[in-house]
Design goal:
With 294 residues, the protein is α/β, with parallel strands linked by helices. The protein has eleven helices and ten strands. The strands form two sheets. Strands 4-3-5-10-6-9-7-8 form an eight-stranded mixed β-sheet, with helices on both faces. A two-stranded antiparallel sheet has the order 1-2. Helix 5 (101-118) links the parallel strand 3 (93-98) and strand 4.
Amino acid sequence: MVRRLPPLNGLRVFEVAARNLSFTRAAGELCVTTAAVSHQIKQLEEFLGLKLFERRNNQLQLTSAGENYLPRVRDAFRALQQATDLLLDDKTIVLRAAVPPAFGAKWLVPRLYRFFNQHPDIRVEVSTDPVRDHHAYDVVIDDRQVDARDLTVERFASTGFFPVCSPAVQATLKTPNDLAGHTLLHERGAQRLSHHPGWQQWLDEAGASNVDASRGPGFSDASMTLQAAIDGQGVALGQRLLVEYDIAAGRLVKPLPVEVSLRLSYYLIFPPAALEKAGFAAFRNWLIAEALRD
């Protein structure tokens, strides 16, 4: 006896809702109402005879059945997409990548044209949205490791830190202690992570004294911090990987020849399915090669 298949619409809604862990965000992505999402999930649960979601402390969570079901549903949709592409003879390969906003703007985008020149048949779609589900992307670049048995985590780049400023400010900076007379620009807020070195750590390692590390405005993203430095509003503590492009263009300079030991690593994070996807190996190898150029 052949079992009936669950409704395709319900499966699609389940995948999106499970990825977002929110019926409201799923509704927005699918351009339907929250009530419609809830109705589709209810129908699917009735068909399966199992609960796929539950609420814990007012937060939507997958049940154990939902956690087991999600990767299989996701793989089924990927297989359908690949089969459709083959049927329609679509030669374009699409890779989905997620990166931190500043890393995307300051490191990836300025060099991405080289990948496109080498691989015109591969289209890379880059997102800077917060990553809720690593399986929704072919690769995620992050400065945080993840603890997940079904994901591969590879360190592919490491960066140091040093002060940067506009060329107009450079002449007044000769030693770390000279920073006492300048506005310090900080990366703070929602995107600020505790493992990112800050001004106090740099000043301590550089041997600076009488410099108030807490002075100056804060920005929630490194791109804004660096833009303020470019505009001459102060001195930023820049990551080498994120400032090289602006230094090469003459928008920023490294005024102090001081080297400290502060480091930050970036990782490639990807699910097993990515290894089987056409174009992924080329993109991964290109990212590693670009990191080695720095």
